[in-house]
Design goal:
single chain; 67 residues
Length: 67
């Protein structure tokens, strides 16, 4: 699903940038996938997606450590 229509950025691209490249805020994500750089209407949704991805990764890391 597209989260930034202006730059054709998908949810998957955002999640990959967070997980694989450590893009943990809008500034670093913008450098990686060029989202939220035109009209900015997607910024809130992208911020939420970053936070969700970081939280999911934290849970997975805790599960790995417990195993």
């Amino acid at each position: 699903m597209y989260v930034c229509i202006c730059r054709n950025v998908t949810e998957t691209q955002v999640r990959e940038a967070v997980v694989r490249h450590g893009a943990c805020n809008l500034r670093t994500l913008r450098k990686r996938v060029d989202t939220c750089s035109q009209c900015g209407k997607c910024a809130l949704e992208v911020k939420t997606l970053i936070q969700e991805t970081l939280a999911e990764n934290a849970v997975l890391e805790q599960q790995d450590m417990a195993a």
